[in-house]
Amino acid sequence: MTERRVEEERRGFSRRAFLQGAGGVAAASSLTEAVHAAQDPASEVQRMRGPEEVELRVNGGTLPATVEPRTTLLDALRHRVDPPLTGTKLVCGEGACGACTVLVDGRPMYACMLLAADVVGREIRTVEGLADGDGLSPVQEAFCEKDGLMCGFCTPGFLMSATGLLERKPDADAEEVRRALSGNFCRCGTQPHIFEAVAEAGRRLREGGR
Amino acid sequence: MAARDNHGTGAPWDDAFRVVGQPLRKVDGLAKATGQALYADDVQLPGMLHAKILRSPHAHARIVSIDASAALALPGVHAVITGADLPIRYGVIPWTPDENALAVDKVRFVGDEVAAVAAVDEDTANAALDAIEVEYEPLHAFLDPREALATPEPQIHADIRGKPVRGNVSKHVELEFGDVEAALAGADLVLEGEYSFHGSTHAPIEPHCAVAQVSADGLLTLWSSTQITHYVHRALAQVLELAPERIRVIQPCLGGAFGGKSDPFALEFCVALLAQRTGRPVKMLWTREEVFYAHRGRHPMQMQYRCGAKSNGRITGVDARILIDGGSYSSFGLVTTYYSGQLLTGPYDFPSYRFDSTRVFTNKPPCGPKRGHGSVQPRFAFEVQFDEVAERLGIDPIEIRRVNFQGDDTQTVNGQRITSNGFLRCLDLVEEASGWKQRRGQLPYGRGLGVAGSMYISGTNYPVYPNDMPQAGIQLKLDRSGVVTVFTGGNDIGQGSNTVVRSIVAEELGVAYDHVRVVAADTDLCPVDLGAYSSRITFMVGNATIDACRKLRHQIVTALAEAWEVDPRRIRLMEGRAFDVEDPDRTVPTREAFQVAEARFDTLGSTGSYNTPQLGGDYRGGTIGASPAYSFTAHVVEVDVDVETGIVRVPAAWCAHDCGRALNPTLVAGQIEGSTYMGLAEALLEEHGVNRFGLHRGPSLLDYRMPTSLDVGDIHAMIVESVDPEGPYGAKEAGEGPLHGSIPALANAIHDAIGVRLRHLPFTPGTVLRALRDQGGKGEGAAVGSTAAATSKREAR
Fold it and tell me: pTM (2 decimals)?
């Protein structure tokens, strides 16, 4: 696991690696206690038998949510926190499309493939957490300016994947951008504008944007 | 003011446009980029129930009995409905109402809707579905259109609208223009070939979703992910037997459609009835699997074409026989059947033309309109055959398309009026940008270039139900704060139609771009528009918007001219200000100009509308395919074929599209890119089909292989502006036309690359390897085939 992460950090995410990562987590998560153990071998194994109130760290704040062992992070964000964070979209529910991508400790992950109980204590960022007050993030600003969106349903996922890449590597080249976004479908086919937007956002970040 | 007024193609003030032609941001871009945009599934209402649908496990069966008592007894279940509760048949085309919201007596495909449940949550609703007992008597299922055509019994539909159906034929159209047989006899070359187009589906990123609420006074409000609010409104009134004034339909932000959300769907009727029955708001969100079964996607077609040409390349006649696999219901199929023939008669001059198209029912998910409705498949077949004509006659493929150009301001062989036509310029641009002259035929084996041309409608000339009312309506409200609110029934489905409306208002009334608010697709608030299909919104709603603006502009200018005691012709409204063009120091912000006008004329508002002129051929079906203007497109696609694996890659594609005038070039480029992407995707990767049980082969986004950012090559969009005499400022469509040519250009490029003609889609690695092997003639696999191909290609040159 550690080796793979190092490898991913080195070359950026590919869709395959992304899916493997997300799928790996979900497979293990069918046994909640197993994944707790796997993620942090030193921790006490915790048992969840039914709905339980947890606190999720989302967009810099702490949100209480009543979740079941099987509740996905996507479900928790959309339906179990107050106010609901509906910017993150349900499209396939099986880790195929990337529309529900959020940042978990800075890394893009599919919220439909994570259990809410597994990300307690980890820093989650959603599309609602990108803007700083009225100020859009450089990635949001570039998507608006370069028209990197049409119907907008995949846009939150693309914004999070792009943010995850550029915060790690503001000087990502075109090939790295393509790879980092390969876990997100845009069915409107506006990829050329998305690539332009991410390139523009990278320029702004390098020039001292937020 | 008459709806058919033509407002000219020039800028409203002086010579230059201020807003039109600028790459301005989308009106809803900010909401979409911050997660604030509200889509149907984001609608949450107090006390809302969740609904689910029980679907047929059989491709074709009689329903013997349904017992929902156990489901109703489950705690948390509020209502169960079946076909008996919604017995009225409907169809988006009023002549073919063959659908029930829930099956009555029979199911016709795996996935056909049988019962619906409303419960406190989705889990309970799913548990209730499991508790519903349905007894079926399976019938023979037709999965092959040829079998369905040849076998009249059992019938999938016995009668539609009281008229008996002939066997399993959904629609048959045969039309001939000129004497095709004589034309082919007089040709120097006649080519005959068979072509097939597989099924593909829209796969919009947003799954279908609807929410219904009934208020205390009996008003039913439906939020739905539909691309045609008006038709949903009508269908609900019909099926629920509810007066239309008691129904309000709202399309929230919509996450992609591409034609796949044009029909009224079972979920809309079901949530409406369940909300009525339970007295609580009801939501239904389809799973991705359900979206695949709902389908309404590209019709598979088996096509035979004959094309005759003189030795100079001029076409003498074209003859087509087409078998269309319609799936289990009519949907838009009547139109599809006509479109399969009617929309091929440009950009080339056909001296004679005949088509014979038959759509048959099969027990598969129903087909419908997918981007480039009905005409993408014939365009593929014809453009591939035309390429072969050029090859046989030794004429450059781009040159033969020039030779046959029909010209502008002309009429097609089937009686359609052509106004502006920028096709030659499109050809010039793709030829130049792709390096065609230097590179075609010069690339190494495995790489090649191919070309294709096409045309498409800018809206259809007649609404799906006959009436004399406007096809597009607009309402404007001017506020003394300086804000202009536009009410449009047009459906913005991501293509940016609300942005187009905003741009036109800002241009016409000279207000700041962000002082224009757009309220859209709400049947209570907005005048009727026929919705987002047939690439009609920019053309029709755009013209209606200009119409409404000109009326208000007249009032504002008159009021100011009176107040300033100058000739009204001296007044200008531009960039947020009103001023006297001969005394520019005399100026006020548009807000003040609005106030002067409001004082003079009272509360300010206006309506605008658009209707097409009377068009079309003088024969039965002659109006289907008639459009006030046609867009034209040329594609050049470059391929890189790996002859060891059969994998075809597209490193680059060039698409030049004549959209009349680009009201927003960024949005037009997006449509060109998106169309080309979607065409190449369905040609190379995607396949929507069923197995021998009628089960979908892979109803998920993992199995239905849409391209990712790693699979998309460089798509170069080029805009041609022919300035149409009747379009808004000369604009025509851009959303569907640029899909058509991408697929035949790809096929023609593969021929240039490896010397084989691929006539049957999709171009999977297996197809390519098989074609290479057949070409080699030795049946020893790809390596041998590829050697032979290389030889033949060199010889050909």
Answer: 0.93
